[in-house]
Amino acid sequence: MRHKHWKKKKLNKEELKRKLYRQKIQIMRPIDNRMFQAIFCYSEEMARDILKVVLNKDPGELVFMEKENTLDPGPAYKGVRLDCFAVDAEGNAYDVESQLYRIVDTDGRILYYHSVITVTMTVPGTEYSAIGKTTVVFFTNYDPWNTGHAMYEEVPAVYAVVNGKREFVGWNDRQKSIILNTEGNLDELTEEQRNLAQFEQTGIPCDELTGRMAMVMKKIKRVWSENLLALTHEMFSNQDHYNMGHDAGVEEGEMKTYAGLVNDGTLDINVAAEKAGMTADEFKKAAAKYLA
Fold first, then answer.
1. For residue 106, is pLDDT > 70?
2. Which end of the chain has fewer CB within 10 Å, C or N?
C-alpha cells in the first residue's frame, strides 16, 4: 500500500512572521527586557514586593509606575528611556533595569540615570531639601566588576579631610545604585534575593513571590499570543498603518493586553483604566472591541 506524502504547507511572509512572534513570546524569560517590564509593572503590589527583596526593606506605597519611561532633560542633552520607573509616596524615585548584554561602562550609565532622574523630577522653585532620593537597580546576567560577587551596592561616601588625610564620616544615601547579577556567587545573597535572581534567569519559581511572578508571566504570554493574530493582521494588511510607527502599535497592543486581563478576571476594569491613563468610562469606550 502506497503512503501519501503530504506536502507541508508553505507559510507566506505574514504567517511566518506571526509564527516567529509566537515562538519568541513562548521562550521569553523574566530577565528579557519586555517581559521584565510587564511583570514589574503588572501591579503596585508586584513592583513593591520586587523592590522589597532587592532593597532588603519595604519602599512603602508606590504612587506612580511606568514602563519605558522617557526622560528628556532638553534638546541639547542626552535623554534616557527607563525600563521600569516608580515613585513612592515620599517622592523617592526607583529605576529598575534589565540588562542582558554587557555594556562598556555600567557605572557611567547608572551615574547618568541618577542625574537625569533628579533633573527631570525637580521643577522650578523646588527646595534642595525637598529633592527625593534616587535608587537605580540593574538586573544583569554578567558580573560588571568581574569579582565573583552577585550583588553590588554603591552609595557615595562622605569623608572629613584632616591634615590631608581622609577620615570616614558616613554615607550620602540620597543616591543608591544596586547591581544584582546571576554570574556571581548567589550564595552571598539572602534567600529571597537568590530566589529572585534564579527566577529572572531560568523562569522557574522558588518561593511565593516568584510563584506569583511565574503566574503573571504565563498570563502575559497567553494574552500576547492570543492578541498577536489580530494585531499582526491589522499591521500587515495595511502597509500605511504599519508605517505609522512603533508607538501606535504599542498603544494598541497594551489596550488589548489590559482588556484581555480584564476579561479573564485578572484585573479590575478600574485598575486597567488607571494603568492606561484613562477613566473607567474612557477605557470601556476605547477598549470596547476587545472587552468581552
1. yes
2. N
Per-residue pLDDT tens over the stretch 9-45:
666 777 777 777 888 888 889 999 889 999 999 999 9
CA angle 61, 66, 67 (to 5 degrees): 130
- Using alpha carbons only, what angle is made at residue 63 by residues 152 and 79, rounded to the nearest 5 degrees? 60
Between CA 83 and CA 47 the distance in angstroms is: 13
Length of the chain equals 292
- How far apart CA 38 and CA 43 sit, in angstroms, is 9
Q: Match 523562569 to its residue by C-alpha cell.
A: 203
**Neighbouring C-beta atoms of residue 19, cutoff 10 Å:** 12
Q: Give the DSSP letter string of 77-105.
A: S--EEEEEEEEETTS-EEEEEEE-S--TT
Strand, helix or coil for residue 64:
strand
- Closest listed residue to residue 138, CA positions, set 117, 167, 111: 111
Residues 122, 124: Cα–Cα separation, whole Å: 7
Check if the beta carbon of residue 116 is closer than 8 Å to that of residue 70.
no
**Segment 154-191, tens digit of pLDDT:** 999 999 999 999 999 999 989 999 999 999 999 999 99
Residue linked to cell 534589565: 98
User: Is beta strand 134-140 parallel, antiparallel or unpaired with respect to 175-181?
Assistant: parallel
Q: How far apart are CA 217 and CA 162, in angstroms?
A: 55
Q: Bridge-partner residues for 171, per DSSP?
A: 157
Between CA 273 and CA 101 the distance in angstroms is 34
Residue 92 CA to residue 87 CA, distance in Å, equals 6
Q: In this structure, are residues 180 and 54 in contact, taking their beta carbons and an 8 Å threshold?
A: yes
> Which are the contacts of 121, defined by CB distance < 8 A and separation ≥ 6?
87, 91, 93, 131, 132
d(CA 108, CA 162): 30
Q: How far apart are CA 203 and CA 217, in angstroms?
A: 9
Residue spans of the domains in the chain: they are: 28-206
